[in-house]
C-alpha cells in the first residue's frame, strides 16, 4: 500500500481536497463562533452607549498592566502554535511536541493569571455582581452591569482557552504516539491551530474594548 | 502534500508586529484623543486580527472558499450591529404621541 493512501480517507479524491475539506469545516465552525461572541459584543456596545460614564468608570477599575501582559502571553502562544503547525507540516516530531507543550503552558498561564489573579482580585475588592458587590459610588448600578459583561466575556473566552488546552493535550499524546510521523497527516494540527488563533483574535478585540477604551489618562 | 510551509522568519516578524501593535494600543489609551481613542483602539485591533488571520491562520495562502466563509460571518455580524444601533440611534427622532403619555406613565408605575 502506498503511504499516501493511508493518510487519505476514502471519500476524498486526494490529500489536497481532504486538507481543504477539514480546513473549511473549521472555518465554518469559527463563523458560528463569530456569531456566538458577536451577540455579546453587540450587547456590550449597545449598553456602553446607554451608560457611557458608568462603563468608562468600570473599565478604569480593571488592571491594564495585567491585561497587557496577558495579551502578550496569548500572542506568544499563537506564535508557538503556528510553529507547531509548521513542525507538523515537516513531520518533525520532537519540534512539534516541544511547541505544542509551550503553547499549552502559555495557555495555562493565561487562564491562571485571568482567573487566579484578576478574577480573584475583582472578587475580593467587591466587584463581583450578584456574588460579592460592595461598591456604592456614583453610577454603581451601571458599573455593576459593566462587570457583568466583563465576567461573561472573559469567562466565555477563558472557557474557550480551557477547551483549547484540552485539544492540545490530545494532540501532544497523539504526537508522542507518532500519529504525525508523515507530513500528510498534519491536518489535525492545522485545524487545532485555526481554533487556537481564533481564540487569540477574540482576545485581541476584548483587550481594547474592556481595558482601554474607557480612557486611562 | 503538506500545504504551504511558511518561513519561520515570517512568523517571527508577524509576532513582532503584533507585540508592537499591543504596546501602541496600550500607549494610545493613556493619551486623551477624545473620540479618536476608541477609533484608534479598534483600528489597531482590526490590524492585529488581520495579521493573525492572514499569516498564522494561513488565510493568505488559502482558497477563496475559506475567505468567503469568514467574509460571510463578518457581514452577518455587521448586520447585527448596524441594525441594532440604527434602532437605538433613531429612537429619539420622532416624538412620542401625546395620546401615549398616559399609557407610558401607567407602565412606569
Describe what this molecule looks like in 3D.
The complex is a heterodimer of chains A (217) and B (109). Chain A has helices at residues 3-7, 15-50, 52-60, 64-89, 93-124, 140-176, 187-212; strands spanning 127-128, 132-133. Chain A is mainly α and 217 residues long. Chain A has a single domain, classed as Up-down Bundle (Four Helix Bundle (Hemerythrin (Met), subunit A)), CATH 1.20.120.80. Chain A has a two-stranded antiparallel sheet. In chain A, α2 crosses α3 (52-60) and α5 runs antiparallel to α6 (140-176). The longest helix of chain A is centred in the last third of the chain and has 37 residues, at 140-176. The N and C termini of chain A lie far apart (67 Å). By secondary structure, chain B is mostly helical. Chain B has one domain (8-94). Helices cover 71% and strands 0% of the residues of chain B. Chain B contains 4 helices and no strands. The model of chain B has no long low-confidence stretch (mean pLDDT 91). Chains A and B meet through α2, α4 and α7 of A and α1, α2 and α3 of B.
Outline the secondary-structure elements.
The complex is a heterodimer of chains A (217) and B (109).
Chain A: H1 3-7, H2 15-50, H3 52-60, H4 64-89, H5 93-124, E1 127-128, E2 132-133, H6 140-176, H7 187-212
Helix pairs in contact in A: 2-3, 2-6, 2-7, 3-6, 4-5, 4-7, 5-6, 6-7
Chain B: H1 8-28, H2 36-56, H3 64-90, H4 101-108
Number of DSSP strand runs of chain B: 0
Structural class of chain A: mainly alpha
Biggest interface between protein chains, with counts per chain?
A: A-B, 57 and 49 residues
Helix proportion range of chain B: over 70%
Provide the succession of SSEs of chain B. Answer: HHHH
CATH homologous superfamily of chain A? Cytochrome c oxidase, subunit III, four-helix bundle
How many domains of chain A? The number is: 1
What is the percentage of strand-forming residues of chain A? Answer: under 5%
What is the share of helical residues of chain A?
over 70%
- The total tally of domains of chain B equals 1
What fraction of the residues of chain B are assigned to beta strands by DSSP? under 5%
Poorly predicted sequence stretches spanning 5 or more consecutive residues of chain B: none
Strand order of the largest sheet of chain A: 1-2
Largest sheet of chain B: none
Instruction: Work out the number of β strands of chain A.
Output: 2
Helix vs. strand class of chain B: mainly alpha
Amino acid at each position: 500500500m502506498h503511504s499516501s493512501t493511508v493518510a487519505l480517507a476514502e471519500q476524498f479524491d486526494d490529500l489536497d481536497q481532504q486538507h481543504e475539506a477539514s480546513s473549511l469545516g473549521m472555518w465554518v465552525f469559527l463563523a458560528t463562533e463569530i456569531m456566538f461572541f458577536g451577540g455579546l459584543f453587540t450587547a456590550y456596545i449597545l449598553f456602553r452607549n446607554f451608560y457611557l460614564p458608568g462603563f468608562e468608570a468600570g473599565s478604569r477599575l480593571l488592571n491594564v498592566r495585567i491585561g497587557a501582559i496577558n495579551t502578550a502571553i496569548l500572542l506568544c502562544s499563537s506564535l508557538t502554535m503556528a510553529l507547531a503547525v509548521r513542525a507538523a507540516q515537516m513531520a518533525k516530531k520532537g519540534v512539534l511536541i516541544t511547541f505544542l507543550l509551550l503553547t499549552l503552558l502559555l495557555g495555562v498561564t493565561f487562564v491562571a493569571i485571568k482567573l487566579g489573579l484578576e478574577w480573584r482580585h475583582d472578587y475580593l475588592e467587591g466587584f463581583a455582581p450578584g456574588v460579592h458587590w460592595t461598591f456604592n459610588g456614583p453610577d454603581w448600578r451601571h458599573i455593576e452591569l459593566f462587570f457583568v459583561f466583563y465576567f461573561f466575556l472573559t469567562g466565555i473566552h477563558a472557557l474557550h482557552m480551557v477547551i483549547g488546552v484540552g485539544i492540545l493535550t490530545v494532540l501532544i499524546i497523539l504526537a508522542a504516539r507518532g500519529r504525525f510521523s508523515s507530513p500528510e497527516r498534519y491536518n489535525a494540527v492545522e485545524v487545532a491551530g485555526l481554533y487556537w488563533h481564533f481564540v487569540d483574535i477574540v482576545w485581541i478585540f476584548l483587550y481594547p474594548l474592556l481595558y482601554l477604551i474607557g480612557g486611562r489618562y | 502534500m503538506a500545504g504551504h510551509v511558511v518561513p519561520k522568519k515570517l512568523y517571527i516578524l508577524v509576532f513582532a508586529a503584533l507585540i508592537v501593535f499591543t504596546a501602541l494600543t496600550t500607549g494610545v489609551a493613556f493619551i486623551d484623543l477624545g473620540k479618536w481613542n476608541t477609533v484608534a483602539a479598534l483600528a489597531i485591533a482590526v490590524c492585529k486580527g488581520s495579521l493573525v488571520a492572514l499569516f498564522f491562520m494561513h488565510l493568505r495562502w488559502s482558497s477563496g472558499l475559506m475567505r468567503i466563509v469568514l467574509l460571510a460571518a463578518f457581514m452577518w455580524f455587521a448586520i447585527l450591529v448596524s441594525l441594532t444601533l440604527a434602532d437605538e440611534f433613531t429612537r429619539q427622532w420622532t416624538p412620542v404621541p401625546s395620546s401615549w403619555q398616559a399609557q407610558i406613565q401607567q407602565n412606569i408605575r
